[in-house]
């Protein structure tokens, strides 16, 4: 059996989409695939329990019959972290629980996909960083990273050093078009010269990088004050706490953004409507804007969303929505599956799990089977 742990240099780098897309690709190759996320970090309340949404999606998409406590043995909540710091969690017991859950899930599987929680170092409080989990479960590590500038290579090298010999390779995800040439001609050869294999460069796909205004309105329970189309994508937020002149200079330099400001700031709202990169206005505090602002927004085709919450709460919630994006639904996993098929070394990542499993089990015919496969 082969085990791949999908981790990342930073949070929100596409681990869930990549992990589940790899599982789907492996299943298409005829492999029996299992999944687990040892540390539940993307938590929500569900029927009186705090659960991670990612294992729930995996169970649905991969048709798994495992229980949630097996798929997610450690609920890595803020309360859990506080208790661990106070010495009220036993790291050895937690590690044993993770190992037992893994063994139960891995029975009769050709491939196990293990999704890391948060970033590479999450879990250090209880000895369950992703490199430590990889050692515990005898997993190879697929390291995800985004790339926007040369300095990002520092993080990749540091993470690769942490992972050590278990590193399967690096997969660059959500790479902007402007960065492709540098990555391909300079960064990839540099890393491979440092014995850090690069297994794919996946381009940035807008549908995975942001959310539509319509989806944002739904997530924020916002009232839409205009009939403007809401299919534009939002990737970032600007908080309106500046003068109109300063705001205009700043807004003109941004793109695919939403302005979040109080409904009682019509001066800022008017300025934002003149900036082509502002895709919508999110007005907080339940304050309705003047009719002239609404009319201008209709004319410009810019949606206005009205929420009852204060600006800080709205910013936190909106950023969480965009960070999560659409990486937790079947359609997004299918998009990522196609991206990996086209832009990653899928065969190099997945390998021949059945042959590998036979070899690790000490099957006397495993060497011959592997040689035949290589030929």
What does this structure look like?
There is one protein chain. The protein has 375 residues and is α/β, with parallel strands linked by helices. It folds into 2 domains: 2-208 and 326-374, 3-Layer(aba) Sandwich (Rossmann fold), CATH 3.40.50.300; 211-323, 3-Layer(aba) Sandwich (Udp-n-acetylmuramoylalanyl-d-glutamate--2,6- Diaminopimelate Ligase, Chain: A, domain 1). Helix content is 46%, strand content 20%. The protein has 18 helices and 17 strands. It has a 6-stranded parallel β-sheet with strand order 2-7-1-8-9-10, with helices on both faces. Strand 16 (278-284), helix 13 and strand 17 form a beta-alpha-beta unit. The longest helix is centred in the middle third of the chain and has 17 residues, at 177-193. It is globular and about 65 Å long. 42% of the residues are buried.
